[in-house]
Amino acid sequence: MPAPALPVDYQALFRALPGSYLLLAADGTVLDNSDHHVAASMRTRESAVGRSIFEAFPSAPESQRQLFDSQEDVRRTRQPDTMLLLRYDLERPAAQGGGIEERYWQLTHYPLLDAQGEVQYLLQMPQDVTAQHRAALAAAEAQQQLAAEQECPRFMLDNLSVLIWTATPDGQRDYFNPRWLAFTGKAMAEELGEQWLGDLHPDDRARVRTQWAQVAASGTPYQVEYRLRRHDGQYCWLLSRAQPRRIAEGQVNLWVGGATDIHDQKMMVQEILSASEQQALLSEQAYQNYQLFENQRNTYQSLFMQAPALICILRGPEHRCEFVNTAYQARFPDRQLLGRPVAEALPEVVAQGIVQLLDNVLETGETFIGDELLVELPAPEGPAREAPASLHPAYFNFTYQRFSERGEVGGIMVFAFEVTELVNARKALE
User: Do 322 and 411 form a contact (C-beta atoms < 8 A)?
Assistant: First the structure.
């Protein structure tokens, strides 16, 4: 004869389930809960059993309304119902220090039917999603902050006094700042693509179209002078320059250009040219120097100094800091960076391979782009020291790009965004 089946203690089995469960009568009276539920709720089983769930586990009126509605749906439809998010704070026992813990839960109610198909019990399964909820909030806040920081350069482009434009990799213009549109008196839609060429002087149009097509195909820096029709019908001389932006593989993914009104200077130069060839040569040289100085000092320096990104210019094989913008200097508030080599100004990055990266960019001319690159640095709010005893991880999206001046290697431009909070938030969420 087979051995008699041993009786099963279903209550003990229910209480030992590896999860948080609360068993309710059809009217919401607490009948039992699992050991995991007892631990998570920080309430004894004896204080809850036999009482209404709203009395046993009191919460804010809004939370109780959501809980009641979910149970009503289960009784009415006889189908499970999952509540997306419910805040239910826990009161720690005095033995655990007391106080209130802010908690967020995802609750699911399951109907348990009798033989006639009526709801006999309600099984509640709460899941503590506090950590996930907080991580999602932190990630959203970090993403919002990053979006605001990345929107700042576009705001600056919109409000610069220079005529700014951008183009797609194949050379089609896709943006003109308000300064350009005010100059031409045209709407954005009337300038996109190649429509902007229609505002050029007829004698300049073919030359500019050909030169721009060649530059867009080769990916080389762009500089040209042409006459552009102003909103009042007068043609004015402009000096237009553009630089390609490249991705890690080397392909151009964006063109950024700016045009400066040089009409008065051009007219002055033409008058001098008509007087004397020698004078014309000297004036042209003075004009070019004037343009270079004015453009660098008034436009790029102002743009770089106010940019929210970390920007600096390094010169020579020892990478001496020639230019450091406000955001970069603020990262190291008590250090003297200008005029000092990187290895002397930032000694902590030497062992991390940063100087070797700079050496390679300067020697080969290959642009280095780092996404979420880890660098150990002193904390921004901590005391600054020449050789800090304690370093903290920081993450940056940055570019090291060699630049040239008059056919010679000029140095390296550093352009970086700190994304430490975004990376930490994502890691916490993961």
Answer: yes
Number of H helices, E strands in the chain: 14, 18
Tokens 């655990």: give the residue.
Answer: 96
Look at strands 368-377 and 392-405 and give their pairing. Answer: antiparallel
Whether 173 is in a domain gets the answer yes
Over residues 366-381, mean pLDDT: 85
> Do 241 and 339 fall within a single domain?
no
Residue 251 is which amino acid? Q
Residues 302 and 328 occupy one common structural domain? no
pLDDT one-digit tens code per residue, 156-203: 556 566 888 999 999 999 999 998 999 999 999 999 999 999 999 999
Dihedral in degrees, nearest 10, Cα atoms 65, 71, 73, 77: -170
Helix, strand, coil shares of the chain, percent, nearest 5, are 40, 30, 30
Lowest mean pLDDT among 98-102, 250-254, 286-290, 367-371: 286-290
Q: Is the pLDDT of residue 18 over 80?
A: yes
Give the total number of structural domains in the chain: 3
182 & 265 share domain: yes
CATH number of the domain where residue 286 is located:
3.30.450.20
- In the predicted structure, residue 388 carries a pLDDT above the cut 60: no
Residue 102 is inside which H or E element, if any? Answer: none
Is residue 360 a contact partner of residue 347, using CB atoms and an 8 Å limit? no
Task: For residues 47 and 95, state if they share a domain.
Answer: yes
Q: Measure the CA–CA gap between 384 and 378, rounded to whole angstroms.
A: 7
CB of 405 within 8 A of CB of 115? Answer: no
Measuring CA to CA, how many Å separate 288 from each of 198, 223, 278, 280, 296? 27, 12, 16, 12, 12
Q: pTM for the complete prediction?
A: 0.36
Same domain, 247 and 316: no
